[in-house]
Specification:
Layout: E1 2-10, H1 17-27, E2 31-38, E3 42-49, H2 52-62, E4 68-74, H3 78-86, E5 92-93, E6 103-107, H4 111-124, E7 128-133, H5 140-150, E8 154-160, E9 166-167, E10 180-185, H6 186-191, H7 195-205, E11 210-214, H8 216-222, E12 232-237
Parallel strand pairs: 6-12, 7-11, 7-12, 8-10, 10-11
Antiparallel strand pairs: 1-3, 1-4, 2-3, 5-6, 8-9
């Protein structure tokens, strides 16, 4: 038995539609593990399938059900599991703003989804280079810490202004392993710190660690790193804001609390 993710789009949400689909799967001896609504007009199922032949029968049968459009039936990914849990899709975007690097955009109201997404990567990787983009007080540092805790990792703020200005210049070698997540505020590091701290951060960046970089715009501008060096980028936005300018967060440094 293999677990598959089945998704269809509702063309017309008539009474009894979900029951018809579930009954059809039941008649084919399909075990339904979970059903969820995804972004209003989508339905997702986690089902158990015996073999490829049974999968093809399901696809052909569902195509005959009126008022739905079968989107996919595939082995579930992390994003599929999260869509089932939260009812929202996580979409990898591409934009020339970040040199066509794939990135993910989350609204501030969806931090629970973002924390689940980020923590899943921190759990499964020994090292990762993550950029966290967003305006002041949108929840970048809090998200990084929460995701670390959710992933059962220790966390270390190497530069930040969350509670007070922190610019560390040393750390024990015992911390330099996959059990720790290191959070770096590049704006604080490169614009309000001494040379000793900057040298320390550059040394940390050379190591294979779990690294979350706030304001990666500054790191790209002030160092040898490019957008392509990041494993992935995450942007947190307020619902009424759009993202169309990679420098829009840097127009006025005084808007960031880095005193």
């Amino acid at each position: 038995m293999s677990v598959y993710f089945l998704e269809y789009k509702i063309i017309k949400n008539r009474t009894g539609l979900l029951g018809d689909v579930a009954s059809l799967l039941g008649l084919m001896d399909i075990n339904i593990l979970k059903i969820a609504s995804i972004e209003g007009n989508l339905r997702g199922f986690l089902i158990e399938i015996k073999n490829e032949k049974q999968k093809n029968i399901i696809m052909n049968s569902l195509k005959t059900v009126k008022n739905i459009d079968l989107c996919s039936i595939r082995k579930p990914s992390l994003n599929d599991f999260l869509a089932m849990k939260h009812g929202k899709k996580i979409i990898s975007r591409k934009t020339d703003i970040y040199e066509n690097k794939n990135y993910y955009r989350f609204q501030k109201t969806d931090l629970d989804l973002l924390i689940d997404f980020l923590s899943a990567h921190l759990k499964t990787k020994d090292s990762c280079f993550i950029g966290l983009i967003g305006e002041p007080r949108v929840g970048k540092t809090e998200t990084a810490i929460s995701a670390s805790v959710h992933a059962n990792k220790y966390w270390q703020l190497l530069s930040t202004t969350l509670l007070r200005k922190i610019t560390r210049t040393r750390i024990s070698d015992d911390y330099l392993n996959k059990n720790f997540v290191f959070i770096i505020d590049a704006l604080t590091t490169f614009h309000r710190s001494r040379a000793e701290h900057i040298k320390f951060i550059k040394n940390i960046l050379e190591k294979k660690l779990l690294l979350i970089i706030e304001h990666p715009d500054v790191l790209v501008r002030e160092s040898k790193y490019t957008w392509l060096d990041f494993d992935f980028l995450i942007e947190i936005i307020n619902p009424d804001h759009s993202s169309n300018d990679k420098n829009r967060y840097l127009h006025n440094y005084s808007s960031f609390d880095i005193g």
